[in-house]
Every structure is written in C-alpha cells, then in structure tokens.
Amino acid sequence: MAAETASPLPSNTFPSQPTKITSIKTLAESPGLTSIPATHTFTPDLHGQVTSVPEGSIPVIDYSLLISGTPGQRSEIVHELGRACQDWGFFMVINHGVPQKLLSSILDRCRGFFDLEEEDKQEFKGNHVLDPIRSGTSFNVSVEKAFYWRDFLKIFVHLVFYSPTKPAGLIEISLEYSQRVREIARGLLTGISESLGLEGSYIDKALDLERGKQIFIANLYPTCPQPELAMGMPPHSDHGLLTLLIQNGIGGLQIQHKGKWVNVGTHPNSFLVNTGDHLEILSNGRYKSVLHRAMVNSKGY
Description:
The protein has 8 helices and 12 strands. The protein is of the alpha+beta class. The protein has a single domain, classed as Sandwich (Jelly Rolls).
C-alpha cells in the first residue's frame, strides 16, 4: 500500500475551532465538523497490516484459580501466565473478584470528568510530566508535530493517593478501584515470579512494590469524522511492570504480535493486562514489553 500524506485543510473546514486545541472532545463536538485538522492527521500506512486472530487466541487467566485453586490448578495457571507473558505480552484476566458495579462506576466517573466544562478541567491541567494530577490531550504536546485524537486524565494513586475533586464521587470510587487493582497486580506478579522459576515473593521484594508508584490513567477517544487519518495513541510500550485495562465496550485497542497488528476485542467484567518495560528488564528479555496502540472510530470511546 502506498503511503499518502494528507494536505493541509482550509481553516473554514473546522467550524468553531478554537485557536489552540485543549480538548479533542470539544473539537469533536464542534457543529458541522466533517474533517480533522492537518495537525491531527497521519499517513494511512499506520492503519495497514492489521490481522485478525481466531476467537479465544488471546490467553485467558482465571485469577480465582491463581489465588485459591488447588495446587494442580494453580500450577497450571502459573504455567499459562508464563506462556502468555512470553508469547503475547498480553492476556485477559477473569474471575478477579472486582464487582461489575465498581468497574461501571469508575468508567462513569471518568466520563463525568471529561464531560466537565473546559474551565473546570483546566484546574487539573498540570504543567510537568511528574505532576500528580494531569489532564489534557494528545500524548506529549511539548515534542509532537502531529497530535493524537485523545483526551486523558492521569493521576498518581500510590504511594500517595491523589484525585481531582470533580466530578462528585470520583475521589471515593477511584480510591477503591485503585486499591483493588493493586491487589490484583501483586497477585499476578506473584504468579509471574513463580513462572520465571523464582520464589513467589521475589518480584515484590526485589522491586519493593509497596513503595512503587501506581498510576491511574483514563483515556477518552471521541467520535472522529475521519478515523482513517487519525490515531488515538501511537505505538508504544508501557514503562512499568503491568498495565491493567478496562474498556467501555467499544473496541480500538491493537497489539503487535509476531510483527503484525492484532485487534483486541472487549470483554465484560475482565481486565486486559499487558507486560511493560520493567518486566522485560527483570526477566532478562524472556517476557517482552508489548507494543500496542489505540485506533479511533466514528463512535468514540
């Protein structure tokens, strides 16, 4: 497929477009918007070479068997965890014990944050990458030349817990959610440690996880009038050990598997987990930090 570069579009293509785009949601809701700014376009080759995998190919880890299964069941799950980290760098976790109500509530509160008026969200903008609360758009606006179709909220939730004070209920729900996710991550890391032939507590002790940072990120990918020209998030790996993800039912996540991009479906009441850079380093490259990206569509998510 030949790569094409989008030409700059006339300014009158973007009704009500602000001089500086601080929110993709605001831009996407502009009356009469039919195309995206030239600053947010990418060549179509980024969308090529996507393959489908048979249903059920992505590994599934039954967390309840890892935590409370029989010795035989637990041994099998530990083996499956190792294979998932080595072959995919990505797996789905079911039977994790987090109530569906809590998962729905955290998605609702995050949506409530993105639905705030722009001046309210600007209170939590942040100015530095290490600020404990940051919200904004794109990926790294200080260095990018083309921008991404994404709004985000990023907060540190451990060692010290932070949260925006708006909308109502976000503090309480995000605190409970973050604590439950931390428990699951440490349980998975126990199994991963054993899958490497180490003691279950090895990763926890070696990296002093009790003092390790935990970051909560909410991403919004609004409706895009030209999804074939936009990107939600560029191909990247995650810096940490593990990333646990929940989705709202609208697909868009892709992972790189055996040199090709693979669509990852959505699964109710489950976590999608991917391995990060620190785990690749700790395992001496045995478990790879998987590349992934977010595509956008005309529905938004």
